[in-house]
Amino acid sequence: MSRKVSFEYTTAFAESLPKAYAEKYDPDVVVAHATVAAARADAPAKVGLFARAGNGLCVVAEDRPGLLALISASLVVCRMDVNAAEVFTRKTGGHREAVDLFWVRKLDVAPGTRLVQADVERVEATLLRYLGGTDPRSEVEKRIAEQTAATPPKPMNATVRFVGDEAGGLATLEVETTDRSGLLYSLASALFGQRVQIVESEVRTVEDKVLDRFRVLEFDGSAIVSARRLEIQVAILNAIEPARRSAPPNA
User: Fold this and answer.
1) Which of 101, 117, 134, 170 is the most exposed place for a label (fewest CB within 10 A)?
2) Pseudo-torsion of CA 84, 132, 115, 96, nearest 10°?
């Protein structure tokens, strides 16, 4: 990773993100995220470490439909489970840039094992392959099958609902269910399949329970009307069980 960025760049970076971002993160964490953004330059994506616990990944990429699914696919293939995630977008130079944060744990290693730079490089290389056009489906399905064989999934209970925006713009899709390998990938892929763009997202896992919130719009930027919401909810429920049946986006 390149050296730390200037105060001016970091300030502009924070101001380009939603107000909730600046209120949530300490200055040293904002600097870490801004450093990843600066290092991306014109590359399709850049991945960096953050968080003192050694389990935070910051992914900065040119925003595009299906991006969250491709990032999630990369984490699955690199044997990482998502404990929490937050997805933001910002405007820079006339383009939309995704700033996606993931708190992960490495599978097949001792609990609490910290991420190292080699992990970052592996995730970044995998993501760049998918962004370049490689279909992640077979690799993801293989990893999910391996994980399911090692740890059989628990029965799935799911609640999927839309929470309306008082301003009539962005709608929030809430998903509560049992955690399982590849779940975030399946949910993000299902939303892409429904031609829904994810503007912001928050993922939380407590023990084996997941609460995901996706702030979403149609691909054309319009609000998701009531007639479309049931269709989207059904697609999400179909993606939850079993997770591996959810189709990935075409990169």
Assistant:
1) 117
2) -50
- pTM of this prediction? 0.90
Question: What are the structure tokens assigned to 26, written together?
Answer: 């300490």
What SS3 state is found at 120?
helix
Residue 180 and residue 156 in contact, taking contact as beta carbons nearer than 8 Å: yes
How do the residues of the chain divide into helix, strand and coil, expressed in percent and rounded to 5? Answer: 40, 30, 30
Q: Residues near 68 by Cβ (< 8 Å), separated by ≥ 6? A: 87, 100, 184, 188, 191, 198, 201
Cis peptide upstream of residue 136 (ω within 30 degrees of 0): no
- Reported as a single tens digit per residue, the pLDDT across 134-185 is 999 999 999 999 988 877 767 778 999 998 765 556 789 999 999 988 999 9
Per-residue buried b or exposed e for 117-143, using 16+ beta carbons within 10 Å of the residue's own CB = eebbebbbebbbbbbeeeebbebbbeb
* CA dihedral over 26, 118, 55, 204, signed as positive or negative: positive
Q: Which residues, other chains included, contact 71 with Cβ-Cβ below 8 Å and sequence gap of 6+?
A: 59, 61, 100, 102, 127
Residues 6+ apart with CB under 8 A from 15: 22
CA–CA separation, 187 and 32 (whole Å): 28
Q: What structural domains and CATH numbers belong to the chain?
A: 7-148 (3.30.70.260), 154-245 (3.30.70.260)
